[in-house]
Each structure stands twice: as C-alpha cells, then as structure tokens.
Amino acid sequence: MEVSITEELGGTLKLNPVRLREIKVFEDTKAGVKGLIDEGVRKIPRIFHHPPDDFVKALKLGNTEHIIPVINLAEVGKDLSSRQEIIGRIREASEKWGFFQVVNHGIPVTVLEDLKNGVRRFYEQDTEVKKKLYTRDQMRPFVYNSNFHIYSSQALNWRDTFVCYLVPNPPKTEDLPVVCRDILLEYGNYVMKLGISLFELLSEALGLQPHHLKDIGCAEGLISLGHYYPACPEPELTMGTTKHSDNCFLTVLLQDHIGGLQVLYQNMWIDIPPVPGALVVNIGDLLQLITNDRFKSVEHRVVANLVGPRISVACFFSEGIKSSLKLYGPIKELLSEDNPPKYREITVAEYVHYFDGKGLDGTSALQHFRI
What we know:
The chain is of the alpha+beta class. It has helices spanning 17-29, 32-38, 80-96, 109-123, 127-131, 181-205, 212-215, 285-290, 348-358, and strands spanning 3-6, 12-15, 57-58, 70-72, 99-103, 142-145, 160-167, 222-229, 239-244, 250-255, 261-265, 268-271, 279-283, 300-303, 310-317. The strands form three sheets. An eight-stranded mixed sheet has the order 4-5-13-10-15-8-7-6. The chain is globular. The chain starts with a strand and ends in a 13-residue tail after the last helix. Its cofactor is Fe cation.
C-alpha cells in the first residue's frame, strides 16, 4: 500500500505509509535534526539512511593533483593586466570546475565570524523559541525547518536550515530572529556588493560588457540559507547534503573550519577544504543555462561528520519562487550557427518550482529544460 501526499510545493508523491508516519513523527517535533541530538540519539532514524553512492568514490585526502582554485581578488582593480589575469582564472574555474574560492574579497573576517556565531546562536537557542518559527510556508520572510524536500527525496539529510529573502524586498527587522538579525542584514549588504563585482568579472570572462549579467537581472535577488549540521553518530549511513547542483545564478558560500563539502569532478568527489577568510563561489544552474553550457553548474554534496556542529551560510543570487515573469534563455551574444541554444526560455520561478518538486534526488533539473 502507498499513500499519496500533496506538498506545499505542488505535485503528488507516493510514499510508503510506514515511511510517511516516521517522517510525520519527526516533522511534528519541529525541533529538526538538532532535536534528535538533544534527545541523545545513538542510532539515526531510518528516514535518514542513504543508499551508497557507489558510482563515484572520494579522492584520497592529501591528493594535490585536483585542487579547487583559490583566487585572490586583492589586485582586481590595480591595473588592466592584473584584472585580465584574474578574469582568466575565473573563466578557467567556471568552465572546468564550476567552483572556486575567493580571498581578499572585501568582507571583513570579523563579519564572517559574527555571522557563523549568529547562525549557531539561532540553532542553539531554546527549542520552544525556534518552534514558533518552524514553517513550510515559503512565502514567509523567514523560513526555518529541516529538509525542504522532506516528502520528495529518498532519504533525509542530516541538517537543519533557515531561509531568508534579503533582496529585492528585505524583511522587516522584527521578522528576523533577534539572535542573528543584525548580522544577517549586514552580511547581506556585503555579499550583494561582492556578487555584483563577481558578475562583472564573469561577464568579461564570457567576452561581454562588464555589466551584462547584472543588467539582465542576475543580481536582482539574494536569498540567504543558514545551515546547521549536527555531529552525526552514524555518518556512514547518511549525508549532510545529498548530491545536487544549485538552482540559482551564483552561490557565495561561507563554511566553517570543519569541512565536508565535496565537488564532483571527473567522476570523483574532491574535497573543498576550508581556507581561513575565504568564500566558496559556485556557478548555479541558471548561469549554466544562460551561458548555454559554457559555465558549468557542478554537482556537490556535504558528507556527515562525527564532529560538529558544522555551520555554513549559502547566499543564492536568485529571486527564487518570488521572481517576476521575466524570461531567461541562452544569451544571444554567445550563440552562433555552431552554438545554437540548448535550452528553452523559462522564468526563475518555473525552474525553482520544478527543482523543489523533484527534490535532491541526484539528478540535474537542467535536463528538463533542454531543447
């Protein structure tokens, strides 16, 4: 027997009634994965058990052949030669890896530390306080829950998340948790400036005018996601975040010192080690779509750890489900007879709805929109 359940995201899914019951028991606590740890669990619930990903294996630690580029932005405005060198490195990283790290990006280390501390304070405050904010209504200004794809994926991730839309319509101060509201807004302002600079460099890397990607709307939205990955008693059975690519134009990620982020490269999982003061930047699905596959939105994951909690903050440049009816397709200046469009025109909301309804199932949502 199977049970149909229609999610807030739309769509009807078939779930085993035993699994559905276990999910609902977890969901009704409104305490997330953090709540399981607070209860002292030593065996993780079955709903978090992941099948082994046996078609790829992690590269051995210490391998120096494959290292995600770390790009120093300090001299981007020094002179034309320095700028062109940085643009060249960003172009190569975006085409080859889909990922790179940036240092000397203009955001003070104190702000980065304050943000990580603020996110941690939110998750480690009294559970009864957090429960009042637990919701699956994505139109709320601040959304806190565990596993946005709770009914649409094979297994849940060992992670809790909050989501906040910062641009173009920032939330009212009173709509944000007191323990992290000021630093969330401050960091959002910094990331917005950095993102615009990165879009200029990415535009030039494509051979376009510096303001091209900004002018077509790539920087019109900014969504902040604060992740909390508790220490896991059985990390070999689950994942912090399942293999996926990002449903945005560009992601800027702050990760703490614990590590666990891996990118899929040449059928191997490559670690992205934390670099003090650095931010991880990766190409999103929508940027791959509008560059007609020139820049790559690459699958990545987060492994579960025995140690924790791991804190990370991902900022997505996208308007998400709150986007306008504006259509995006391959940039015409990049097309030719030998390079015809590979994707149909879509709205950002259409892409995000499909992505969310599909869940983090290890397949790319981009395939659905190919011509």
